Structure formats: structure tokens, C-alpha cells
Amino acid sequence: MDWTDIMSRSESSFWGLLGLRLLSADSQRVEIGLTANQSHLNSMGIVHGGVLSSMMDQAMGMLVTAVKGGQEGVTTHLNINYLSPMSAGELIVTAYPLHETYRTMTLRAEVCNSEGILGCISTGTFRLPKDKGKAVTDRG
User: What is d(CA 50, CA 101) in angstroms, rounded to the nearest whole number?
Assistant: First the structure.
């Protein structure tokens, strides 16, 4: 899949604000990197949970796009378990598919630091929006 168009739009969005980098993507796995700096930390000096959850949400959303041939989905459920505090430095999020139907996907993601320490895990469910050309009465 060619990510050029999506990545060019992403640079001026939340993706760009966070400083995310696409490392690899195919239909079995997406990896995204982030160099966490002072602006990503909370008042305790660790990476803010919102940054970590956003990384996992973004990676799973990109995996939906890869699996569904470029069609983008929206998050309908996100469950997160924070396991170890993450410090400034290199972080990698990896997303994997778990279950797929015609219009939904369930995935899992994890964030590790450069030492391989697992910081958090998540599962998420994504839904593909209906085709814009379908009639409003079509509820399927």
C-alpha cells in the first residue's frame, strides 16, 4: 500500500503534533516510532498516558487502513493497561490484528521503549464508515 497521501495529510494533524514516524506497515503489523521529549511528559516526568494511548490508537487505525485496502476506520472502543512508566527517549508501538468482519476490526497494540521494556498494551475496535453514496435508510 502507498502511504504517501495519508502521511502527507498526517503531518499537519495530531500525528504531526505528536511527532510520530511510520516505521513499517503491512496487513499483519504496523510499527510507529516516537522520540519522546519533554513535551510528551507529565508532571511526574514520565510519558503522559494520553501520548501512549494516542500512539496505540494511531497504530491500530493504520493497521485497519492497511488491511482494508486504504479505507480508514474510526475507533469505537479502546481499552488500555499501563504496565511500566515510560521515560523520554525512543518508543515503538506495534499493532496486530485479532478479529475482522466486513465493517469492524478488533486489534491489539503494545508500546515498548528502546530497551524492550513493555510500557502498555491495548485492544481496540474500529468500524468502517458506511459508503457516502448509500441511502440514509440503509442501516446495514
Answer: 28
Say if residue 56 is exposed, middle or buried (CB neighbours under 10 Å; 0-12, 13-18, 19+).
buried
Domains of the chain in sequence order: 4-127 (3.10.129.10)
Is-contact 99 106, C-beta < 8 A? yes
Q: What's the pTM?
A: 0.88
pLDDT in tens, 23-68: 999 999 999 999 999 999 999 999 999 999 999 999 999 999 999 9
Q: For residue 78, which phi and psi values (nearest 5 degrees)?
A: -140, 120
